[in-house]
Design a protein that fits this description.
Elements lengths: L6 E5 L6 E4 L2 E7 L4 E7 L5 E10 L9 E5 L3 E8 L8 E10 L18 H5 L3 E5 L4 H12 L5 E4 L5 H12 L11 E4 L2 E3 L5 H7 L3
Parallel strand pairs: 9-10
Antiparallel strand pairs: 1-8, 2-3, 3-4, 4-7, 5-6, 5-8, 9-11, 11-12
């Protein structure tokens, strides 16, 4: 899988901050009551933009990742933050921008054009968790492909945004990652692990 650059910025509440990647600039704009984060695409082609903000001192924490397709030569509002009164406000953000063809490094799936919540992502897909060097994982993926099942492989070694979504989803439900036996599956939100019989499991996977 192609490795993409992940930009990590720590921002305060003073001034205008910008970051650029693959023709896209993250622009911060502020007024006395709100702070805005925009994705500005100066390229001649669309860009897929992933943005996740972790904020303190704001009315609403921005823990929900945002994924949008930004048209060429345009600027799109990604997130609005409302600072609390008499409180020091700060935030951090993770930012990735890639061409629509590169598709944010996702496998077997087109990046959504609108913002997507964790529950929406998990509960609408069949996710198969694998890792490098796992022979049983390779066998399961091969069987699913041969059976033409619709699924998304999540390699926990890569820790991409789908892995982050899944990790948050599992933690919110009390699942401890250190007890998981790979390969593991999330079928529309249903945790299945361990998977003792691959053939029986493959039949269980629906579209």
């Amino acid at each position: 899988m192609r490795v993409f650059l992940l930009l990590y910025f720590i921002l305060g509440v003073v001034g205008i901050s910008v970051a650029q990647q693959n023709g896209v600039t993250i622009v911060e704009k502020k007024d006395p009551k709100r702070h805005f984060l925009y994705a500005k695409n100066d390229a001649d082609a669309p860009r897929n933009v992933f943005l996740k903000v972790t904020a303190t001192g704001y009315r609403r924490r921005a823990d929900r990742p945002i994924i949008k397709i930004i048209p060429p030569k345009s600027e799109v509002l990604m997130m609005t933050l409302i600072p609390l009164r008499d409180t020091i406000s700060s935030y951090q953000y993770l930012f990735v921008a890639n061409t629509e063809e590169e598709n944010l490094g996702l496998v077997r799936e087109k990046v959504p054009s609108e913002s997507l919540g964790i529950n929406e992502f998990i509960e609408s897909r069949n996710l198969i968790f694998t890792k490098k060097g796992c022979d049983k994982c390779v066998a399961l993926v091969s069987k699913l492909q041969q059976a033409r099942k619709n699924f998304r492989e999540v390699d926990i070694s890569d820790k991409d945004w789908a892995f982050d979504y899944s990790l948050s989803y599992l933690r919110n439900r009390g699942q401890k990652m250190d007890t998981i036996a790979l390969p593991m599956a999330l079928l529309k939100g249903e945790v299945i692990q361990p998977i003792p019989d691959l053939n029986i499991f493959v039949k269980k996977v629906t579209e």
